[in-house]
């Protein structure tokens, strides 16, 4: 589920499990009543903190999308393939980040209602790796692009 | 639990912080939308670029409306309800649609 870890050991047959859970979560995005039927309503402050975390991830997604536009606009000397590739990578990362933001928010909300531990995730590590790779690629591309 | 939370002072000013988080996010959306429109109008004004601009404006307005709605509902009561999943989904769909516009413009 977009890199969300659910334990490190996984049986071969368990590959379908995250897909099913993701599909169920997508259904819950549009069915707010169902989430209210589950467990107890947590202290409103926890819900608001969860909401702010969601918004922070959404801003990250918007910054990635803005970065995609910026690459397209402010690096006009680059070769077409590099420019479009970098811009699309950033836009794609933004979309992934926003989808994951709502999914993670939902999982946290449900975990709080049920009194379970909050879900852990590999996504922040993955995203930071992607951002690092894109940053290095941009430095290389700008240097090479201005040489030739 | 709800009434107890309502009676005690909230030292963290949680609803206000959440309102400000929505404002910041709207600001980020504005920056992304402005960059998107700059990209759209870069190659000169054509029918396609004007339509894309209008679409981006509509997405930005939708996000603004969502944020404003949530800010008002947070300010209305001392113990606000949790964010509705539909609301959150609408917010990310605006963002994803803006990225889709971007992909169409870049290609």
UniProtKB/TrEMBL annotation, chain B:
Record bears the keyword Chloroplast: no
Statement: the UniProt record of this protein carries the keyword NAD: no
Transmembrane intervals: 47-67, 88-106
Membrane topology summary: Multi-pass membrane protein
Keywords assigned by UniProt, alphabetized: Membrane, Transmembrane, Transmembrane helix
Location(s) in or outside the cell: Endomembrane system
InterPro entries: DUF202
Source species: Streptomyces cylindrosporus
Segments forming domain DUF202: 10-73
Protein name: DUF202 domain-containing protein
């Amino acid at each position: 589920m977009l890199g969300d870890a659910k334990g490190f050991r996984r049986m071969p047959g368990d590959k379908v499990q995250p897909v099913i859970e993701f599909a169920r979560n997508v259904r819950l995005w549009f069915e707010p009543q169902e989430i209210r039927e589950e467990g107890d309503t947590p202290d409103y402050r926890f819900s608001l903190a969860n909401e702010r975390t969601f918004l922070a991830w959404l801003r990250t997604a918007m910054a990635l999308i803005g970065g995609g536009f910026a690459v397209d606009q402010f690096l006009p000397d680059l070769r077409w393939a590099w420019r479009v590739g970098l811009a699309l990578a950033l836009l794609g990362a933004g979309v992934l980040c926003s989808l994951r933001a709502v999914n993670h928010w939902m999982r946290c909300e449900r975990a709080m209602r049920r009194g379970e531990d909050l879900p852990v995730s590999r996504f922040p590590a993955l995203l930071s790796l992607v951002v690092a790779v894109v940053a290095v690629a941009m430095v290389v591309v700008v240097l090479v692009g201005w040489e030739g | 639990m709800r009434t107890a939370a309502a009676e005690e002072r909230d030292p963290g000013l949680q609803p206000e912080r959440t309102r400000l988080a929505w404002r910041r996010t709207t600001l980020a959306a504005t920056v992304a939308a402005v960059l998107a429109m700059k990209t759209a109008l870069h190659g000169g004004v054509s029918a396609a670029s004007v339509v894309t601009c209008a679409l981006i404006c509509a997405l930005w307005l939708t996000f603004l409306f969502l944020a404003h709605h949530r800010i008002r509902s947070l300010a209305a009561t001392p113990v606000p309800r949790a964010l509705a999943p539909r609301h959150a989904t609408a917010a990310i769909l605006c963002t994803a649609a803006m990225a889709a516009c971007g992909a169409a413009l870049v290609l």
